[in-house]
Specification:
The structure holds 2 protein chains of 2 kinds. Chain A has strands at residues 4-7, 10-13, 18-25, 31-37, 44-50, 53-57, 64-70, 73-79, 87-94, 106-107, 111-115. By secondary structure, chain A is mostly beta strands. In chain A, strand 4 (31-37) and strand 5 form a beta hairpin. Chain A is globular, with a radius of gyration of 14 Å. Helices cover 0% and strands 44% of the residues of chain B. Chain B has strands spanning 3-5, 10-14, 19-21, 24-26, 32-38, 45-49, 60-61, 72-74, 83-90, 96-98, 102-107. In chain B, strands 2, 5, 6, 9, 10 and 11 form a 6-stranded mixed β-sheet that branches. In chain B, a hairpin with a 6-residue loop joins strand 5 (32-38) and strand 6 (45-49). Chain B starts with a strand and ends with a strand. The mean pLDDT of chain B is 87. Classes of the chains: A mainly beta, B mainly beta. Chains A and B meet through strand 10 of A and strand 5, strand 6 and strand 10 of B.
């Protein structure tokens, strides 16, 4: 499959569970992103990875732990989440975060997370 | 700090009517602006970017630096245009800042 894929598409978990979200991009990009889309808020940027190095962490609680083992894969490890963490989590990639020109981000379909 | 504002959360029009989705921004540098669209049960996708000055699916958007706006327009709305639309600004850190989104509903 081409583009940006995310698994699972839907996830229901309890507050004591540990789960992981997976993102994979087939575009040869060097930068990957995690976003959170809540029902009543704008898209929020959570983490940015460039060449497998985390370059930005926007005050995200430690119960969210990202991992980027290579430039094609990005994970978001979840543990002891709260009900207010229920949201759509979107992954995106771009050619190069450090490019001197505007760089378009390509989004995956998202994972709909529900925390009970 | 940069900010993107979409004042309308919901816009409802009849098929064939003109559509304008508003977007205002605040940014101290030279902005790069985008419109993204999310159709029902589909992923977020790029609709257009102001530097390309192209029309996608009949939509156009003109950057007005004096009014700090980047409104999205279409002269005749179609039912398949019903979706969530996000205005976004590309900032100095090469990051996108999104507005809150506007849900467009085109009624038959």
């Amino acid at each position: 499959e081409t583009g940006v894929t995310q698994t699972p598409r839907h996830l229901v978990m309890g507050m004591t569970n540990k789960k992981s979200l997976k993102c994979e991009q087939h575009l040869g990009h060097n930068a990957m992103y995690w976003y959170k889309q809540s029902a009543k808020k704008p898209l929020e940027l959570m983490f940015v990875y460039s060449l497998e190095e985390r370059v930005e962490n926007n005050s995200v609680p430690s119960r969210f732990s990202p991992e980027c083992p290579n430039s094609s894969h990005l994970f978001l490890h979840l543990h002891t989440l709260q009900p207010e963490d229920s949201a759509l989590y979107l992954c995106a990639s771009s050619q190069d975060r450090l490019a001197g020109v505007t760089d378009t981000q390509y989004f995956g379909p998202g994972t709909r997370l529900t925390v009970l | 700090a940069q900010r993107v504002t979409q004042p309308e959360k919901l816009l409802s029009v009849f098929k064939g009517a003109p559509v304008e989705l508003k977007c205002n921004y605040s940014y101290s540098g030279s902005p790069e602006l985008f419109w993204y669209v999310q159709y029902s049960r589909q992923r977020l996708q790029l609709l257009l970017r102001h530097i390309s000055r192209e029309s996608i699916k009949g939509f156009t958007a003109d950057l007005n630096k004096g009014e700090t706006s980047f409104h999205l327009k279409k002269p005749f709305a179609q039912e398949e245009d019903s979706a969530m639309y996000y205005c976004a600004l590309f900032n100095a850190g090469n990051m996108l800042t999104f507005g809150g989104g506007t849900r467009l509903m085109v009624k038959p």
